[in-house]
Amino acid sequence: MTIVERFLKYVSFDTQSSEEAQGCPSTDKQWRLAEYLRDELTQLGLTEVELDEHGYLYATLPANTDKAVPTIGFIAHMDTSPDASGKDVKPRIVENYDGGDIVLDEEAGIVTSPRKFPELKQHVGEDIIVTDGHTLLGADDKAGIAEIVQAMVYLMEHPEIKHGKIRVGFNPDEEIGMGAHLFDVEKFGCDWAYTMDGGELGELEFENFNAASAKIDITGVSVHPGYAKDKMINAALVAADLITVMPDTEIPAMTEGYEGFFHLTGVQGGVEKATVNYIIRDHDRQLFEQRKQYITDIVNAMNDRYGKGTLQLTLSDQYYNMREMIEPCMHVIDIAKQAIAEAGAEPQVRAIRGGTDGAQLSFKGLPCPNIFAGGLNFHGPHEFLPIPNMEKAMQTVVNICRITAER
Fold first, then answer.
1. Cα of 356 vs its chain's centroid, Å
2. Do residues 89 and 380 touch, judged by C-beta distance below 8 A?
3. Phi and psi (nearest 5°) for 353?
4. Which letter does DSSP use for residue 48 in this model?
5. Pairing relationship of beta strands 57-61 and 72-77 according to DSSP bridges
6. Pairing outcome for strands 203-207 and 92-94
7. Per-residue pLDDT tens for 285-340?
């Protein structure tokens, strides 16, 4: 089976996760891909294949050398984003892309155009996998899964490539921020690992946002509006007041690079009750802490104005910048750079304006930078995957295994 055939098989499974669910995995349909992969890895000849009660799948490619070599791992997630449907994905291969518009659904007028998505221009002449315009594709992160599995097959078919013990890990619920929570780092047993969950060709990431969520519950005082003077506290208006005093330029639509932000993700309510939700992001840990203090100070000031207990703030740290955990072991990055270059790509080291499972795993004791999986425009119907990107990502995995053994 080719890497493209594997990928097309994997995207036939609907594995959308859900932020509303409480269990793990958050959706039962993720089990179907997990069970398929368990059986596939077993049939391919990997050992120590285990699918645990939470939907985490682990497997081993045994070492083929007596040399003492670090145990390394490769990780990808099985779920797709709640932002767009992953049901009945209908992928199509655009052969020898000519640089023009790609019509996804002519009748519905859905077109992926390089005018809107200029990154397409980097892939003229390549074969590209696209959607039919009505679902996401699922390259995030089924491309990563396909690349890891194909790399294990390649290594088994080429025993002349010496490598140490290689561990594979596929997890649920990354898209809702829970992918690493129940990942068993001790059982995985690696000196370090890589998530195959990046985007464009050559991407290598070991910096990410520090991240927190802020939930502000507002309790109003409801009084008949005809007799409300000096009595009513309208929770919805308090919510609007809060939003108004937040920085209007420090938002996702007006920031880039290393700039952090406050992102309003939801507001709902009425006179008696209202809730405002933000996420807080910054690469710099000190600035991150200042942002949390900023929103705390605003809530305190508004409680002074409206009455103690009117606003209740719940701050929850989600993950931290993995850079501080990677810097003591930069050989992990050096190996990845060499592997990417030898696969025929230019290493593109950049900071993630987001987070990965690798960030949380790094703070659990498993240094885990992120490598490109090759897809672009994730989480929507304009997602696409250049096939050469996927092939070079697979070769990067093979190269990492070889270079680790050589070093």
1. 5
2. no
3. -90, 60
4. E
5. unpaired
6. unpaired
7. 999 999 999 999 999 999 999 999 999 999 999 889 999 999 999 999 999 999 99
In the 8-state DSSP scheme, what is residue 353? Answer: S
> Phi and psi (nearest 5°) for 276?
-120, 135
What's the whole-model pTM score?
0.88
Burial class, 397, CB count within 10 angstroms (exposed 0-12 / middle 13-18 / buried 19+): buried
pLDDT score for 203: 96
pLDDT in tens, 237-276: 999 999 999 999 999 999 999 999 999 999 999 999 999 9
Residue identified by tokens 């449907």 is 85
Per DSSP, the residues of 188-242 read H--SEEEEEEE-STTEEEEE--EEEEEEEEEE-B---GGG-TTT-B-HHHHHHHH
If phi > 0 it is left, if psi is from -120 to 50 it is alpha, else beta; for residue 173 that is left
Both structure tokens of 70: 């670090």
Active site residue 5: no
One of 79, 140, 197, 205 is an active-site residue; which one?
Answer: 79
For the question of residue 79 being annotated catalytic, the response is yes
Query: Mind listing the pLDDT tens digit for each residue in 94-139?
Result: 999 999 999 999 999 999 999 999 999 999 999 999 999 999 999 9
Choose among 83, 77, 155: nearest CA to 396: 155
Per-residue pLDDT of 199-238, as tens digits, reads: 999 999 999 999 999 999 999 999 999 999 999 999 999 9
- Contacts of 243-252 with CB under 8 Å at 24 or more apart are 243/267, 243/276, 245/298, 246/278, 246/295, 246/298
Give CA–CA dist 133/356, Å, rounded: 26
Q: Of the listed 14, 141, 174, 383, which one is catalytic?
A: 174
